[in-house]
Amino acid sequence: MTSSTRSARRSALRRHGIALGVTATLLVTGCAAESAPGDTKKPSSPKPTAQAVAHTVPGYDVGQFPPVPLFVLPDLSLLDSSSSAFTIEVNAAVADIPGVTATPAHCDAGGSVISGNGTAFLYGDGSGAFTGPDGTVQNFGDGSGVSTINGVTIQNFGDGSGTYDDGTVRIQNFGDGSGNYTDATHTVQIFGDGSGNYDEGAVRIQNFGDGSGQYDNGTITIQNFGDGSGTYDDGTISIHNWGDGTALVDGKTVKADKLPPVPRLGDFPPLTALAPLESCGTTLTFEDGVLFDFDRSEIRADAAATLDAVAQAFTSLDIAQAQVSGHTDSIGSDDYNQTLSEKRAESVVAGLKDRGISTALTAEGFGESRPVAANEIDGADNPAGRQLNRRVEIFIPATF
Questions:
Q1: Is 271 a domain residue?
Q2: Are residues 236 and 378 in the same domain?
């Protein structure tokens, strides 16, 4: 993709009134804290009042709302050919549960879940071709080559660019930090200039690379205008953060921190990340705010349906054992976060056991020690990263 093509694309986006933003481990990011997207001018409004506002976003304090979410490029080392079939079963079982996702996990030698990375494989010792029982490989002797192994085709053009296609997943790497990823449910575009797009069904995330971005899932709309201001609307609650220390929540003015800018996107990972690795199990992730109110460890009454559905999936799949872990962001003391993460993990275990599942469950809290995204970038707060870090995970070993 040439720079002129990307510039034309960004110009077209802006002509349609889109403003953009994204982050660095192929995370694309946005705005707020166990916390708070803006416009340019606001109408005159009353001064902030201490009066409480009735409506709050689940999991957030008064006047605060989620950031434009980080979007995560799927783990390129855990592609279709190596993903556990059990992960696919679990994913199908929880597909209709809002805020819960199932992904293949990969582990170190001790069985701990890690994020991995591999090395592209080639046969041969120069130019030539190889045909074996699992497929064919062509090596052109100039650093480029093509392999088709077990239905997976990888093209390496020798200049850092290449393609991957297994019939379901298609990856295009243009070698300049830009690239595309498409599978049956996701499309991720990384333009290499800090901007990018993410699409999954009704969910659309746009990062414009200049500190602004937006999120829309057909029900919830979040906008961050990159100057400290932004909006949130879910059809029930309407919040407009003016970026000057105040926000309008359902017609009432309250104090609210200005929104930090949406961090830029990192580059598309190199072709060498395409080697398949074996999955060691499945990780279920409960997104921030799905189960708990702001700074609390008691499961909300309206989250009962979520646990009901997860418990039903565990029973139908006859899962023998699983590990529940709680995680926080870096706001607050280490001791406080450790205790909160432990209590949240224990609440999930208790909630599932109360629903009569036979799965042997263990609970453990890790506080802020195992972030999946940066809590800060270049010394600046990264609320969308912290949002990903505030989570509860259930790891189901492949040998369940």
A1: no
A2: no
In a domain? residue 144 = yes
Cβ count within 10 A of residue 286:
25
Is the pLDDT at 23 greater than 60? The verdict is no
Q: Which pLDDT value is given to residue 342?
A: 96
CA–CA gap between residue 52 and residue 82 (Å, rounded): 52
Strands (E), 193-288: 196-200, 203-207, 213-216, 221-224, 230-233, 238-241, 246-249, 252-255, 281-286
- Other CB atoms within 10 Å distance of the CB of residue 130: 13
Position 315, amino acid: T
Q: What is the CATH number of the domain that holds 107?
A: 3.30.1330.60
Structurally, how many domains does the chain consist of? 3
Q: What is the pLDDT of residue 239?
A: 94
Q: Does residue 186 sit within a domain?
A: yes
Query: What would the pLDDT profile of 134-149 be if each residue is shown by its tens digit?
Result: 555 555 555 566 767 6
pTM > 0.70: no
What torsion, rounded to 10 degrees, do the Cα atoms 273, 204, 104, 165 define?
-50
